[in-house]
Design brief:
0% strand, single chain, Serine Threonine Protein Phosphatase 5, Tetratricopeptide repeat
Length: 275
């Protein structure tokens, strides 16, 4: 949502004040014409102009004629014909007030227009670092794995740890057939975010290909200590137990995953009971 700048807020407040001053002047001018120059007052129809008779506006009365009559009186200097110094001073002030109002109003409108031209819904200032980050993710989405890895390398040269960048660089390395580099990145993610399930599962897949069952089990043990309600974690650990040959452990994990809502663990737990 756009907000007025301090300049725009000041202009708006000044314009509002000028409107109030204008209507006060209209009231004063109307009263002076009624008292000193009744014929001119009747000719201009000022008896029906706001704020002299506000009710006429709500009753459907057309006030355009007295309004335009008042503007003609002021803008064309018709007050000179009355030879009334007080009315001339007030009319002169109202002319300057009217011109000043138009100038400030146009300034306000132009500033809002310029601000609107620069503003786009949902647009946010993007820093060079954020642009580089989005460029790396864009390369990843385009499956340009080597270019993505190079972009991630540049971003990760910064000392600030970034689990997200490590995870996606690991995924890109994996796609390039670099399992050791991918595993290193997944381990870094787990170090930074011990409850990141996807990093654990990705590391599990690489370690499974290497038949590193003990490391997989230690990894899932640490995860389950932190997230004991994770059905997926029990299911994954059960798989590692099964491949290691620990059917009792696999059966217990499958049963627990089933209890926690992992549907595919239930038939597996039943099969393991018969072994």
């Amino acid at each position: 949502m756009r907000v007025l700048t301090p300049l725009q807020g000041t202009l708006f407040a000044v314009l509002l004040l000028m409107v109030l001053v204008w209507f006060r002047c209209v009231s004063k001018l109307s009263r002076q014409l009624r008292e000193r120059h009744p014929e001119k007052y009747q000719q201009m129809g000022l008896a029906y102009i706001w704020p002299q008779n506000l009710g006429q506006w709500f009753s459907g009365y057309d006030n355009s004629k007295p309004v335009f009559a008042l503007l003609r009186f002021l803008l064309f200097g018709l007050d000179d014909a009355l030879r009334d110094a007080e009315i001339s001073r007030l009319s002169s002030f109202m002319r300057w007030l009217f011109c000043g109002y138009l100038a400030l109003f146009l300034l306000l409108v132009s500033s809002i227009f310029v601000q609107g031209a620069r503003w786009k819904p949902g647009a946010v200032e993007v820093s060079p670092a954020q642009q580089a980050r989005e460029q790396a993710f864009s390369l990843h989405r385009e499956k340009r794995w080597a270019d993505a890895v190079a972009a991630y390398d540049d971003l990760l040269a910064e000392p600030e740890p970034d689990a997200e960048l490590h995870y996606w660089r690991g995924m890109a390395h994996w796609q390039l057939g670099h399992p050791d580099e991918a595993l290193q990145d997944f381990r870094r993610v787990i170090e930074l975010e011990p409850t990141n399930f996807e990093a654990h599962r990705s590391a599990d897949r690489i370690l499974s290909n290497q038949r590193q069952w003990d490391e997989i089990l230690e990894m899932w043990n640490r995860y389950i200590l932190r997230v004991p309600s994770s059905a997926d974690a029990y299911f994954e650990r059960g798989g590692a137990n099964f491949h290691k040959g620990d059917l009792v452990g696999a059966r217990a994990d499958a049963a627990r995953a089933c209890e926690l809502g992992k549907a595919e663990a239930c038939p597996w737990a039943e099969r393991l009971k018969r072994r």
